[in-house]
Specification:
This protein is mainly alpha-helical. The protein contains four helices and two strands.
């Protein structure tokens, strides 16, 4: 339920979808701008927070689960 600011790379877009503000990787000025926007705009902050919860619920319904994928990746049954 937190607003998210992420670098604009495919993996972040895949996970966060529309639930994040993105900035070009390596662009510290753009990162600062996105953080300032989230801090200054209550409506944006609330929209991103709600969107992050909705996205987490969406991802939790996926099969296999993130938990199962991570456990498999580290070799735990």
């Amino acid at each position: 339920g937190l607003p998210t600011v992420a670098s604009d790379i495919p993996a972040h877009r895949e996970v966060a979808g529309e639930a994040a503000l993105y900035f070009p990787p390596g662009d510290s000025g753009a990162l600062a701008d996105r953080i300032n926007r989230v801090c200054a705009d209550d409506g944006l902050r609330l929209r991103l927070a709600a969107a992050s919860l909705a996205r987490a619920r969406q991802l939790a319904l996926g099969e296999p689960s993130w938990r199962a994928l991570l456990l498999d990746a580290v070799g735990i049954d």
